[in-house]
Automatic annotation (TrEMBL):
Keywords from the named record: ATP-binding, Biotin, Ligase, Nucleotide-binding
NCBIfam families associated with the record: PRK08591.1
Membrane-crossing segments per the record: none
Record domain Biotin carboxylation: where: 1-449
Entry GO MF terms: ATP binding; metal ion binding; methylcrotonoyl-CoA carboxylase activity
Pfam families in the cross-refs: Biotin_carb_C (PF02785), Biotin_carb_N (PF00289), Biotin_lipoyl (PF00364), BT_MCC_alpha (PF21139), CPSase_L_D2 (PF02786)
Alphabetical list of CDD domains matching this protein: biotinyl_domain (cd06850)
Domain of life: Bacteria
Domain annotation ATP-grasp: ranges: 120-322
Cofactor requirement: biotin
Gene3D superfamilies, per database record: 2.40.50.100, 3.30.700.40, ATP-grasp fold, B domain
Protein name: 3-methylcrotonyl-CoA carboxylase alpha subunit
EC number(s) reported in the record: 6.4.1.4
Amino acid sequence: MFRKILIANRGEIACRIIRTARRTGVATVAVFSDADRDALHVALADEAVRIGPAEAAKSYLNIPAIVEAARASGAEAVHPGYGFLSENPEFVEAVEAAGLVFIGPSANAIRAMGLKDAAKALMEKAGVPVVPGYHGERQEPSFLAGEAEAIGYPVLIKARAGGGGKGMRKVERPEDFVAALESARREAESAFGDGRVLVEKYMAKPRHIEVQVFGDAHGNVVHLFERDCSLQRRHQKVIEEAPAPGMTAEMRAAMGTAAVRAAAAIGYSGAGTVEFIADVSEGLRQDRFHFMEMNTRLQVEHPVTEAITGLDLVEWQLRVAAGEPLPKRQDELSIDGWAFEARLYAENPARDFLPATGRLSVFDLPEGVRVDSGVRAGDLVTPYYDPMIAKVVTHGRTRAEALARLEGALAECRVAGVTTNAGFLARLCRLPAFSAGDVDTGLIGRSGEELLTEPEASEEAFALAALAALGLLAAPSGDDPWQRLRGFRLWGEAVQTVFLDHGGAEHALRVTMRGEGRFRVEHGGVATDLCVQSFDGRAVRVAFDGHTLPATVHREARAITVFFAGRGHAFVLAEEAGHQGEAAGGDRLSAPMPGLVRIVSAGPGARVKKGDPLVTMEAMKMELVLAAPRDGVVAAVPVAAGDQVPEGALLVALAPEEAA
Ligand code: ADP
């Protein structure tokens, strides 16, 4: 076994590899970009080496810098993780040229599977069923249109160099073929620098079923059963499971044999995945699965295979790369129960899944289930890398049990400061077709808007947000009655109104204090009575109609997040008209959402006019120009271009207005 390895990756997969390395007594070297100086993977590794600026092209894709880091730190081998350089044969060659071991397949095996067309031709020869279609050299539009005609519509145009669903177009009718071809080519050209395509039969009701394979340097290849990754959004996996629902022993054997044959055909060593597409318009049928592509690395979703086999695939990778034979033979492998994995992303489903950035002010993930994460509370989610922040993995004796655990675990994901898809994932668990195991890749696309939109918060959640907004949750400090009456007039009615933004609308909430932690909150004609029993700054115990329930409330600047009854809800305290400082036309310019400061147009001492652009931010893939709220003189600019700022951060302060 190796003494020390370098991990050429970041985020959850770097952390996950470090865990196995530590358990097996292998020292680890992390690499990091400037944006990741304080990242979890850097903190977990034994050593860490800076490899470049934030942009991946100059850091995590920087082959010379990574190889030099490995050499200088005395690592014997390099684990590429997934993504970045994991399927780059030149990286393998550079690692080997430096006298180090690449923890993965040979450069030749990666090349053989690197282009979809060549891989399909190779698999056809090896007797592996491939999707009917044209995957030859000719690229003239008229020729390809003729092939599409012969295959029969609908067809799918795919970039041969494709990945991540890029350069892929479904074409329904012959008259649309040429336009779709041109658009697929343009996308492929800009994403991969290779505009060549193949044309396939488009499966009406496809399921994505993939087989985990493992080879060693001694010519052994086994498979570790299948994963079903059909729950996809725009060809991107969302929730994966193992085994595949409805899989028969015969079909599993047929797919496993085909996958092993595919790996053996290229002398494969290490972890790999053979992806198949199964046409299930007439159910799962042994003669209706076809090779799609082979991923020559560890997959994001490998934990579901680990959960049902009880194995550690990273440990297998390390052993095989160190020259050991595979730890088990095919007949020693078996399936135990069922497993799911949900990918938790920093993104906003209600806004077309735009990646979200910002500081994770709360990041509490469920306990008692496997969570692979690359971040912790307080970390920044930057716009530079993949927005996946964690994977939640559950296991059960049956599919229903594992799925119920997943739903429960998702309800316990409490994240604030950054928008996530946790609610979307939880709603997916409740889709009837999914819980019945009747999945296909179009399921999410066919499901309605209600899957994407966060339902409005309950009255209980609104009431808790209103109390948080008024500072009324704070535990009574001592016996000071003045303290407890904070925010309320001492004479007359103890009533206060607060305005909260929620789900894009402003809500007025009228809070009446009724003594000793008891409140009435009126909102849109509905009154909610609640009694706060305890609050430790985060966790609240609160009784509604005599029924005590737990909740978690977090407030940072004007952002309030309430976690109640398995759902998280975000509120923003509206600017109070006439409030000193924060008011429109006030002294402060603050960030309306988390983002990156791009341009700072005025420095301290500058005289500005109302409406002058002061700061340009990039947030949610938009450019925001923030203008001076009034005429005045800039007193302070606590941010600089390049800073990542949370929502509500002070960007510019104006000197107080001189009394006229
Ligand atoms: P990429 O490498 O870009 O991710 P894949 O070839 O792996 O592309 O395909 C991605 C997804 O596209 C599959 O999981 C499946 O949902 C869908 N897909 C691929 N080929 C077909 C096909 N022939 N018919 C229908 N859907 C397909």
